[in-house]
Design a protein that fits this description.
The chain is mainly alpha-helical and about 190 residues long. The protein is built from 7 helices and 3 strands; from the N terminus they run βαββαααααα. Helix 1 packs antiparallel against helix 2.
């Protein structure tokens, strides 16, 4: 996750959203990163990424944001930061906790009032299948470590509970692992 500096709008046009998704696909190919979900919002983005090796996540994000800033500055000349800082990340337990985070990502436009239903936001993985390809034929989404529930689109209609939202927001803010207490205990120490 990363947010525009001072919460400023980063994606102004459909072409800018599409170009960023193209960069996500290219970054994934360069670093062998698996993208499980994404949501681009006007002033921030969420990605659920599944690295294969230590260091892959940092290499992916460095390449992605460096390339994006170069493109951005061609359209919006200036100096200073485009993104507010280093990306935020946290480990996710590979069970229902992963589904909870994926749902959180894909429902972001609904919570923000930008779309009545998650699949209606065009800059999100909600409703897309693993066969979705980026504009240049770059594979963008990868299969989840656990099969996507058959009723996933129905699950996206159900708002998250306040406890779920707060736990995820805490993980985003602190970089703390998201999972059951036995699983997270070893990771957060």
């Amino acid at each position: 996750m990363n947010r525009g500096n001072e919460r400023q709008t980063v994606f102004h046009t459909d072409n800018e959203y599409a170009s960023f998704l193209q960069l996500v696909g290219q970054a994934g190919q360069r670093t062998n990163m698996r993208t499980l979900a994404f949501c681009l919002m006007p002033n921030h983005f969420h990605l659920c990424l599944w690295p294969r090796e230590d260091g892959d996540l940092s290499r992916f994000m460095q390449w992605l944001t460096t390339k994006h800033v170069a493109q951005y500055r061609k359209s919006y000349p200036g100096s200073g930061h485009v993104w507010q800082g280093r990306f935020k990340s946290f480990a996710i337990q590979d069970d229902e906790h992963l589904w909870t985070v994926l749902k959180y990502i894909e429902r972001n436009p609904v919570r923000a009032g930008l779309a009545p239903r998650a699949p209606m936001w065009p800059w999100s993985s909600a409703g897309l299948s693993t066969e979705f390809l980026g504009q240049q034929g770059l594979p963008l989404l990868h299969p989840w470590p656990r099969p996507r529930p058959a009723n996933w689109l129905d699950l996206l209609l159900v708002p998250e509970g306040e406890v779920e939202l707060e736990r995820i927001r805490k993980s985003v803010a602190n970089g703390s692992a998201y999972g059951d207490s036995g699983w997270t205990r070893g990771l957060d120490d």
